[in-house]
Amino acid sequence: MDRFNFNFAPYNTLTPTEQKQLQKQVQIVFFDDNAPIITAGEPMDALYVVIKGVVKELGDDGDVVALYRTNDSFETRALFENVSPHSFICAEQCLVYALPKSLILNLISSNVRFGAYFYTGIAERLSSITWHEGHELSQLFHAKVSDAFHHDTLWADGGMSLAELARLMREHKAKSVLVRHDDKVGLITESVFRDVVANGADTGGAIFTHANFGLVGIGGDDFLFNALLTMMNHRIQRLVVKDDGQIVGILEQMDILAYLSSHSHLVAERLHRADSLDELAKIAHSMNQSISSLQASGMSAVQLARLMQVLNGQLFEKAWQMIAPPDMVAKTCLVVMGSEGRGEQVLKTDQDNALIADDDVDMTALHEYAVKFSDTLDKFGYPPCMGGIMVSNPKWCQTVSDFKRTVAHWCKSADGESLMDMAIFLDARTVAGKADLLDEVKHHLNAHLDKDVGMQMNFARAIMQFDEHNRGFFAKMLGKTDNHKMDIKKMGLFPVVHGVRALALKARIDETSTFERLIALKNQGVISDTLAKDTVDALGYLMNIRLNAGLFYVRNGEPISPNQVDTELLSTLERDLLKDALAVVKRFKHEVKSQFGLHNV
């Protein structure tokens, strides 16, 4: 019988010769309860792999930061740094493999795949288990616009007559034509041409008078997935493709619909055609099936969240337009907040929305429509917000003047409730109506934000509110309770989202997406490039973990509890990545605490 089990990553990448080398040198060591395996700061000469039992990793503050079970390796950092900054203690009687450090370093240098496991970051390791070649949709998320657009797009001079254009389009069997006129580029499509002729236009007239010069473009190096989102956002079927700012062709919706057959584009089309709230309800209840199919086909939680932000926005807009009369829609601004506003929610969550109205709107009438809107979303599968953060609550349905007074109060009082209301509102995004109203209130909020260090410190302090939960989680993992579930939001998502939000507020960054805020913080030098990248990777992985947990509840017909992750259901690699992600979260929290002086609070 082999001394070492090679049936798990990364040891399953070793060649037969390399396996023999490892078999000759591996040792099996027994540790009793509470016995030290690695002591922080002391030289290390071996890498350990758990055979049986549980090992706990202690941070520099003495808290448990990770647990290791069967097939988990530790401490890989010491392979390159000579010593470990953390201690490793046997939590339950355990057997471990002890692999000589010199042997592992030799294998890393001789076997690229084996070495990649130890060198790559969260994003790269995650991709190795997320993307599967052969999935019908995986090409969509890797393919570039340059791979799919019409390189042989038909061009015409703006002075050409309609009759000449008709003959040209027939000759080339073209459904769209790019038109050059006065250093501008326009577009004429088959449907536009048909309508122009049907309306009795002079076929001898110049075509530039009928061309659309307000074109929406996308770069050839961008992803097809982003092109699809752009089309859905603008409700168009074509984009012009640019190379170094110059238009080089057209990308049509038909070029990419095959990649999304029966999924998101059909949802968007159904939303566009829907003419009743009952029909919208059917579409809303079908979204989970589309999410599950897309996720199974290789789409990440981050991409799905962006897609659902577009679809949910269109759903909410359509519902509001059906509920409120046109003049009321035109004089109000419907906004979504929280994870929906940031574009970081996939499965349906509770309602976080608000209404801002012109000062002359009849607020009594508006409130009736707002209550109906909240009830309608509940029927769509979006439950009421337990904290009352929704349009049916008069606190979140006000005139623009009243909203401005409210945000000014948040800044002046700076109590816990006001600061959390401000945090929620900072993520606000318009989905329907008069977007200028939200811009006006946000501008007023920014005008009232000052350099009050105390206020900023109190705002950032919220990242610490679940610290005790972290310790409780590891107690569960150690078997001291029968509950192996962790709250992924409290453990990882909230500290990152709110920490980034606090830094963005301090730096006067307007973006609402956590990912975009991280990029802006990096570009301004607020945080390092390395920390920004690691935090992006960690957040993406935590979102994937949450999505998988939510879909598990959906498949089993249970109430959706997307933040509750059963760690017993995670694979060894998934738990390893979770440990890495939570370590990044801890590092990020340390940076936020340092920048706001919270270490001694």
What are the main properties of this structure?
50% helix, six-stranded antiparallel β-sheet, 601 residues, globular, alpha+beta
Characterise this structure:
- About 3% of the residues have low confidence.
- The chain has 25 helices and 18 strands.
- It has 601 residues and is of the alpha+beta class.
- Helix content is 50%, strand content 16%.
- Strands 1, 2, 3, 4, 5 and 6 form a six-stranded antiparallel β-sheet that branches.
Largest sheet: 6 strands, antiparallel
Number of strands: 18
Structural class: alpha+beta
Proportion of helical residues? 40-55%
> Cα-atom Rg, whole angstroms?
28 Å
Percent in strands: 15-25%
Shape: globular
Number of helices: 25
Any chance you could write out the topology, listing elements then pairs?
Elements: H1 16-25, E1 27-31, E2 36-38, E3 46-58, E4 64-68, E5 73-74, H2 78-81, E6 87-100, H3 101-110, H4 112-119, H5 122-130, H6 138-142, E7 155-157, H7 162-172, E8 176-181, E9 184-189, H8 190-198, E10 217-219, H9 224-234, E11 238-243, E12 246-252, H10 253-257, H11 264-273, H12 277-296, H13 301-323, H14 326-330, E13 332-336, H15 338-342, E14 353-357, H16 363-380, E15 397-399, H17 400-413, H18 416-426, E16 429-433, H19 435-448, H20 453-460, H21 467-477, E17 485-487, H22 488-506, H23 514-523, H24 529-555, E18 564-566, H25 572-596
Parallel strand pairs: 7-8, 10-11, 14-15
Antiparallel strand pairs: 1-6, 2-6, 3-4, 3-5, 3-6, 8-9, 11-12, 13-14, 13-16, 17-18
